[in-house]
Amino acid sequence: MKQIQATVLFLAMFLFGTFINLQAQVTTIESIRNNPYAYNGNKVTVEGLVTNFVHDAGTTDYYILKDDFGWTIKINTGEGTPETNKKYTVTGIVYIELPSGRPFISEKTRIIINGPTITEIPSTFWEKLLSFLKDNALILILIGVLVVLVSAYFLLRRKKSAVPVSAYTPPSYSPSASDYSVPTAKLSPNDMQQQSSDDFKTIKIMASSPKTLKFIPGKLTIVSGEDTGKSFKIAGFPTSEGSIVSIGREEVKGDRAYSHIQLMQKTISRKQAEIVQKDGKLYVKNLSDTNFTQLDGIELKPNEKAELKAGAVLRLGELEVKYEV
User: Fold this and answer.
1) How far is CA 238 from CA 214, 241, 244, 286, in A?
2) What tens digit of pLDDT does each residue of 32-75 get?
3) Is the Cβ–Cβ distance between 316 and 272 less than 8 Å?
4) Domain range 2-118, its CATH number among 1.10.260.40, 2.40.440.10, 2.60.40.10, 2.40.50.140
5) What CATH class does 177-324 carry?
6) What is d(CA 202, CA 266) in angstroms, rounded to the nearest whole number?
7) What's the predicted TM-score (pTM) here?
């Protein structure tokens, strides 16, 4: 009996995996390479052989994926080292490298390709499988009923123990004349307490701020990804170059932690960019030479600074935020 159940479970898993593979729409590397801008920003699934892996300290690791026809594409990854000379199915977002114009994929998932494909399995296998399903229909039905009952049991338990969670409400803010006549205003603990880092999945910010830091007028609203529609305020750390808000993948501790936006994506540099407030204006400065920082669709060069105006959209890797006042 146990052997039969194990066999049924194995076949169910095999059929499920086959179904998923059939449903996946695989895009050829050739089509991406020949028309990269048609795929820019889109999610794709590609297949190929990993030819080599490059570990780039301090930035994003990558590997080269080669298809059966010799076409290759660069895959940026933060999920560890793939095995070379092994075939993988890779899903991710297509981006364009500048100034070369070559496409690359920011990896989301990676699955190694093992065993024969569905087209390589002989017809006798399907005949035996159909015969087995016919002979053991009752067992399969009982297993299905058991799965439904167990699932319903745990679902009911989860509903009973669930605690209602209030929906996130972005902190409201209406700029006053003093926000523009005086470049900065002190950020009260009550204002900062509303933007707990628990409210966000793609960024991490401090939930409170010392009184010595200054509040920058306006707010940043996330316009793409899991946190779309959520807003937060920023406080600049005073320096001789102005009040600075640092942005990057690194975790900052100490006084500067209160004026730092930590981005959780793998395609972000440790030091990605800065928002600088000086002489009553806001500027964004790109610090990365490997991962792009864009302002209203224009990519900033390393150490290039541009004015951040109301309504401007800032793109940092896969995250997009809009500056609003």
Assistant:
1) 8, 8, 7, 19
2) 999 999 999 999 999 999 999 998 766 788 999 999 999 999 99
3) yes
4) 2.40.50.140
5) mainly beta
6) 11
7) 0.41
